[in-house]
Amino acid sequence: MINKLSESDAGRLKSYMQNTFERAENFIGYPIARDFDYAELYPLLRLPLNNIGDPLLRSTYDLSSREMEQEVLNFFADIFHVPENNWWGYVNNGGSEGNLYALYAARELYPEGIVYYSDATHYSVQKNIKLLNIPSIQIRTLPSGEIDYADLQGMINLNRSKPVIIVANIGTTMTEAKDDLSKLRSIFEGLRIENYYIHCDAALAGVYSALLELKPGFDFRYGADSISISGHKFIGSPLPCGVVLIKKNHKDRIGRKVSYIGTVDTTISGSRNGHTPLFLWYAIKCMGVEGLRDRGITCLANAAYAESRLNEIGVNAWRNTDAITVVLPEVSAAVREKWQIATSAGISHIICMPGVSREKIEEFVQDVATSLQVDPIPYVLA
């Protein structure tokens, strides 16, 4: 039994909790849904749920949520149109781990391959490439944040004897740009590249893009070999989590049997969180496909509203087609601090996630309008 906190530490915890709840009220700069309620599951936090090993196989460690995890995987397998009887996946710690697993599988498939990724790709990809020691080439991007296909074609042509491993962004971090798999495959065909692997990093936009059938298509029907999403973003979770799906014939090169856990070690981590699959399972069961579609439609409508309102006050705000991310010139330090706004290379953005109301958007717009009165130049030049 853990002893109770001291009076001093209890006071610190109370102060931290109060401040954190207050900061959560102004949170529109990062892709995190905040409208979830998993109170019905909280009693299970008293148990050490661990989905160690392969999610599709039993383990002698039976305090797990494997059954629910399998239902979560089947749900995503359905919306991403996995190849019949040739897919596998697991619930992990988030999109970064999903990217790592996909690159690991791609390296095992093509040991001589080169990874191509755009300069708008999530930072986890560069880190994962270093961890896996894979040769790589960074590709320029178009003004929207989409990969520069001409630059990609030129770089592949210079190395056409090597297999291609490409990370396609289905929603970049700052502008939510989406790379077009049909254009990627057209490049491969034109250069007669036979050995290639396409991984789709769909951390934020993957779920609603698939459910709303937004263009360009990116699922397994369009040529994906693997897809990773984050569960704590569009769906929402108190703990970071994600899902990676991959063609089973690619995954079969990975894994070994471990006798004392009674299963096969096929994932990146050994022990895996048994609570996060429950959160995703609960959300999917409560909302269903239609509820998740409506969630996406609401986010897109709110993003259009935010873009329009910012334009009305003289801010050069914009967004990519069917994006819930609204890009604007770098906001003032005061606005950035209050609203926790991600900023890079002279631009800021807000993301109209589930839980971000129009009232909050309006409050943000008014704060920007106030800052315009102090220094209007940055907002209108970018």
Q: Give the CATH level 1 class of the largest domain.
A: Alpha Beta
How many angstroms separate the termini?
58 Å
Largest sheet: 7 strands, mixed
Q: What pattern of helices and strands is seen along the backbone?
A: HHEHEHEHEHEHEHEHEEHEHEEHH
Architecture overview:
By secondary structure, the chain is α/β, with parallel strands linked by helices. It folds into two domains: 23-36 and 288-370, Alpha-Beta Complex (Aspartate Aminotransferase, domain 1); 42-284, 3-Layer(aba) Sandwich (Aspartate Aminotransferase, domain 2). A hairpin with a 2-residue loop joins strand 11 (343-344) and strand 12. The protein has a seven-stranded mixed beta sheet, sandwiched between helices. It has a three-stranded antiparallel beta sheet with strand order 10-12-11. Helix 2 crosses helix 10, helix 3 crosses helix 4 (123-132) and helix 10 (276-312) crosses helix 12 (358-374). It contains 13 helices and twelve strands. It has helices spanning 7-23, 66-79, 95-109, 123-132, 149-158, 181-190, 206-211, 232-236, 248-251, 276-312, 333-339, 358-374, 377-381; strands at residues 87-92, 114-118, 136-139, 164-169, 196-201, 226-230, 242-247, 256-258, 263-265, 325-329, 343-344, 347-351. Helices cover 41% and strands 15% of the residues.
